[in-house]
Structures are given as C-alpha cells and as structure tokens.
C-alpha cells in the first residue's frame, strides 16, 4: 500500500520569545500559558486537527523541556497516530555537520527527510506564537485551485503597525508581486501571518538553493520567499478574516487574555465546531465564593477573595481579602490574604504573601514608561514576601 | 506491594437511585461537578498500584463505556492487563443477574486468567480515599482468608446495608444483612479482599451448588471459620443509595476539609473534556459553589454545584442546586433545591423548588 500524506504541517516552535522576558526564562514561547488552561501551541495544533491535518512536525530548539513534555505523544489533540501524528523535531548531530537551527528556513531544511517520509504534495509552515482559529484546509483548497507554488496567509492590520510585519503587495487577483519584511515605509496594510503553504517539490528545491547561498540568513521572510518571487514562481495571498493575535509581547499577551472575557468576547473559545484541545488538567471544579466579576476561572481554583477583569489559570488560590484586578494568573499561584495584584501577568507556581502589593491600578500603570507598558511581570516559581511591594512595570524573576 | 487485581461492580442496586439510573448504571452517576462515581473507586485502585481492573456491567452501560473508553485516562490502556469490561454472563435462562454472586459469574474467566495473588472487589457507589495496598498488608499480617472494609458512621434506614461486629483483634464476629440498624455502626462498604485462588475456589463451590447469595453463602460460612478480618476506612465516606444521599454527598464537597481530603495529595482520574475555562460575568454573583470549566454564569449562584458547560443567564437565581453538564438556565429563573440531569433547558422565568430531603429532580434532556 502506498503510504503518503497529502499535507504535512511543520510548526516552528524554537523561538526564544525574548520580548516576553521572565515568562520565557525557562520555557519556549509556544509553551507559555494562555487563557487560564491553554498553552500557545494548543492553537496551531488544534487548528491542524480541526483542518484534517494529522501529521505535524514540531521544531524545537530553545528550552524544549516543558514543550516536549506538554506535546508528548499528541494524544490530547488526537495526534497519536500509527502513521503520522505529532513529532518533536530537535536539532541533531549528523555525520557531515552538527548544527543548531540557524533560521526558520534552515530549521525546515534540516528536516526535509522527515517531510519526505510522508511523500507529501503540500507542506504547511506554521509558527507557534499566535492565537487564532483557522481552517487550513480552506487555504489549501485555494492553493490548489490557483495552482500556486506558495500561498501566504495574510490579514489587514492598521497601517501604523504595518512596519512590524512582513507586508504583501498584491495584484487584484491575489497574486503577490512584492514581499517586504518589516518595511520602514509599508506600501500596503496586508500583513503576512507567518502561515505558508508550499507545493512540496518547490519548497524542497528553494530550501536547497537557499542552503547553498552563503549570503542568506536562512529565513523564510527575508530569503526564501523573495527568492521564489524573483524566480517567477506563482505566489498567492490568502485573506484571513477573524481573530488573530501575535502574543510575542507582554502587552499583546495581556490583551489577548482580556479578549476572552465577557458574554460576547472578542475571541470566543466556546465553539463546538472548532474546539481548542489542550492537555486539560485533572483538577476538580473551581470553588468560588468571593467577589468575582468579568473573569475567567479555570478548574482547581479556590477563590475566596476578589477577582475583577482577570484570567485565573488552573489551580490558583485567591485567599479571603486578596484582590486581583486586570491581571493574568497563569496557574498554581497563591495570592494570600490581604495581598493586592493589579495589572500584572503572573507566571505559574508563584506565591504572593500576605499584604504584598504587586503592580498599580491600570489607569496609573499606563503612565509608567518601560518595556511592558506598565504591566508588572512575575516569573515562574517566585515568592513575593509579606508586605513586599513590586512596582508597576517591573519584571521580577527572583524572590522579593 | 503484592500483585493485585481489581473487580468493580458498576451496577449493583441501581434501583435505589431510580431517577439517576434510568439512563445509566450506578457507576456512571455524575458527581462533584466533573466526575462519575466509578472514578473514585477506579482512582483508588490505580493509586494503589492496581493495573488490571475488570468492570462488571449489567444493563444500560453505554454511558459507562463512553466514560471509560479504552481506560487511557486512568493509565489503564495497557498491553498487559489494564481496563477490561466484563459484560453480564448469560446462561440458558437469558435473564440478567439479580445479585452480586450471579454477577461474579461474569468475572470467572477474567479471574482464572489473572496472575495476581490478590483480588479486591469493590462497588462504585461511593466516594472515599483508600489505599487498597494497606488493606492487603493487613490482610497478609492477619493471615486472613477475607478482609472486609467498613466505615463507622451513624446509620439511618438506608436499604441493603450490611453492618458488622468485630472483636478486639479486628476479626469479624457477625454480620447483619439488610440491616436497618440505627446509631453508630460499622457499615461494610462492599470492599472485599482475598487471595485470588481462594475466592475462585469458593465461587466454584457455591456456583456448583446453585447458591446465589454472596453474603450468606460466601461471607457468612467464612466468618464461622474465624478467618475474616475487618479493616477500618478512616475519614470521609460518601455513599449514593438514594436521590437524597446523592444530593448530600455532592453538597459535602462544598466543605473545604472534605474537598481537600478527597482531592488532596493525589489525582482523581476521569474522562477529560476540553471545555474552555468558566466565565463569570460582571452581572454574576457566585457564592459557595463549585463551577466547572465550560460554565458561563451571568446570574446569581449560591451553594450550588455546576457541571461542565452550564449556562446561567442574567437575573437567574440558583440556590442549593446541582446542575449537571450541558444545562441552560434562562433569564430570571428561580431554582431552589433542584437537581437537573444532563442536557436540560429551563426557559426564562421558571420557578422550581424542592427541599433538602426531597430535591426537585429534572430528567435528562428535559425542556421546561
């Protein structure tokens, strides 16, 4: 029997996520907690299985321990398969050359043999730092219908933010005539979402060419896509409508969490057709008795204090008299009696002791200058001692 | 620890909780916001190091099968042993078994194949934390033929209890079958430990003679030989043998100490659903309640247990209720002492009330 897969997904999950500071000290960005019970990688993995793609290579490099453990055999996403399924692909030692992944294109290049095992006609390239729900199958259908060699998913962004993205300049029929990586003077507001479908043979060809080019930075956006365009390959844009958020910064991560709140949220997770799967923890339901308003509370929490406009991850304890406002608690964190948490992101396993004060009110914090826009960040596993004070915009990665 | 095989009765005395067992067997009665009763005995077994478990089923076990699946959530999807469903054994009579001993016929082949030295028989109608390996250690130390686990508590008029008396050495002196005794008594919780070969030889003997009562024909004769010992279950024991006790054992979980005893220091395994975390909106007011992932609460909820994906609309007021999964409670409803089974929808403005002794029960899938 011929064993092959029509489409194989390759998920770039090696990013360090340096703009998340203390949140990525010990874990890769795709393993960062999101939305009280998820990790960022749940979104692309769930999108794959919900789009009928059951073969996914996850390319890891930076601090892969938590990510490897989390992805495991892929069972939470129904990606434990006899042929296909999810595979962690770490850099490896080879006879000729031992090397770390040197860029997005080089990472995929080093795993050409993995892709070829499945003899795919198409390869889907994804990144592990975006929150969105998308049917990749529709994009694949568009790619096939156009007879494209490469299709790039894109969406409109505000013109003033366009210079942060890879920008596509397109013809009315959707073909791309120019690709500019983070242009200073963007000509359009169509931003690449970092989601590419390649016809497999073309991908392999251009990866090999790029590998031989000593001047290349081995990056899809800077090198491979422009090279294909210059060679006259058929490159199409695919317009995505809907919620999509890059959660690569502290402010965008907080915003994306807040987008989940409310009866009609900006981003809806209650969706029977496109369930976001995760390694759901085995905690009992949350016990709630305090004042809770406009918040999300995951299982395993014990809430006796006040929680307002916040996202509280699995297994958190908010003691009586504690107040958590406009904040994200990622999980298994204890906020003791009388402590106050304002406009903060608190990583897992943190203890905030009695009467400690973390952050200041959102309206005040907004005036604070700094790399987090006034958001206070507490790193994984730290303890804030009795009565201690952590100022607005501080990033703390050790006990205080 | 000694090698042990478990056998769980999932469908004994279902008729005592007729409301909840119309559509399921006793073991799959929902409990505590996310669990089925069987999760507690099964988690006890897994946490005691038991890796081969036979589940004796009877009728309406589709819900149970759906819950257990391959057993992977209990780490019991194994090449060797694991979770094994034991459907009812049927002979020429073609009538389903009516008692424990007949039920065990369905486990004979399973037990004969088992290589484990010891067997634990247990019911799936109760909530407690127990390390069965401790029971087996005592069983070995006592050189017992049978060890029966009991819990000491105030007994009411509950049906079909077996109460027991013990001597100073912990030997069982006598048992009182179908007792209706009141007061502080030793209630046998139907956890039975023996050597596998011993149980098999007894079963073969009594079945060959056409005897039908596990307690009268197996336990009583053994007590007379003086080799049956008692093991005391310390701590919390919640039993479901009526709608009222179902209500009470659920509500017990609103007690912090009971909650930390049952869930603390170990995992209670169950089927996992990927519902998003619960949302409590700006109009909501939640007091002293358990709220599972998937809930959306806009109204007032007090002393309640809400299972997965319960929607409580604005202005609704729920007090002392147990609302099972996939329920919709419309605007301005007023519910007090109500138990709703799964998949119900209560339209806006409806008022329903029961009382603690007799909660108002809403059948699965009802539209009110």
Report the largest inter-chain contact.
Answer: A-B, 37 and 39 residues
Overall mean pLDDT of chain B stands at 91
Level of helix content of chain A?
10-25%
Q: Kindly report the name of the CATH homologous superfamily of the largest domain in chain B.
A: Spore Coat Polysaccharide Biosynthesis Protein SpsA, Chain A
Number of strands of chain A: 31
User: What is the overall number of helices of chain A?
Assistant: 9
Tally of DSSP helical segments of chain B: 10
Shape of chain A: globular
Mean of residue pLDDT values of chain A: 93
Domain unit count of chain B: 2
Unreliable stretches covering 5 or more consecutive residues of chain B: none
| Structural category of chain A | alpha/beta
**What portion of the residues of chain B fall into strands of 2 or more residues?**
25-35%
Share of helix among residues of chain B? 10-25%
Structural class of chain B: alpha/beta
Radius of gyration of CA atoms of chain A, rounded to a whole number: 22 Å
Low-confidence stretches of chain A: none
Explain what the structure shows.
Helices cover 19% and strands 27% of the residues of chain A. Chain A has 400 residues and is an alpha/beta fold. In chain A, the strands form 7 sheets. Chain A has a 7-stranded mixed β-sheet. A 6-stranded parallel β-sheet of chain A has the order 14-17-20-23-26-29, with no helix packed on it. In chain A, strand 2 and strand 3 form a beta hairpin. The radius of gyration of chain A is 22 Å and the shape is globular. Chain A starts with 6 loop residues before the first strand and ends with a strand. The radius of gyration of chain B is 21 Å and the shape is elongated. Chain B folds into 2 domains: 4-263, Spore Coat Polysaccharide Biosynthesis Protein SpsA, Chain A (Alpha-Beta Complex), CATH 3.90.550.10; 279-362, UDP N-Acetylglucosamine Acyltransferase, domain 1. Chain B is of the alpha/beta class and 368 residues long. Chain B has 10 helices and 28 strands. The model of chain B has no long low-confidence stretch (mean pLDDT 91). In chain B, strands 1, 4, 5, 6, 8, 9, 10, 11 and 12 form a 9-stranded mixed β-sheet that branches. In chain B, 23% of the residues lie in helices and 30% in strands. Chain B has helices spanning 18-21, 38-47, 62-68, 100-105, 108-113, 132-142, 196-208, 214-224, 243-251, 256-263; strands at 4-9, 30-31, 35-36, 52-56, 82-86, 118-123, 126-127, 146-155, 161-166, 172-179, 183-195, 228-232, 238-239, 278-280, 285-287, 289-291, 296-297, 300-302, 305-306, 311-312, 317-319, 322-323, 328-329, 334-336, 338-340, 345-346, 351-353, 360-362. The chains are: A alpha/beta (400), B alpha/beta (368). Chain A binds chain B through residues 35-37, 75-76, 260-263, 269-270, 275-278, 280, 282-289, 292-299, 302, 311-314, and chain B through 32-35, 72, 253-254, 256, 259, 263, 267-270, 272-274, 276-282, 284, 286-294, 296, 298, 305-307. Strand 14 (286-288) of chain A pairs antiparallel with strand 16 (289-291) of chain B, so a sheet runs across the interface.
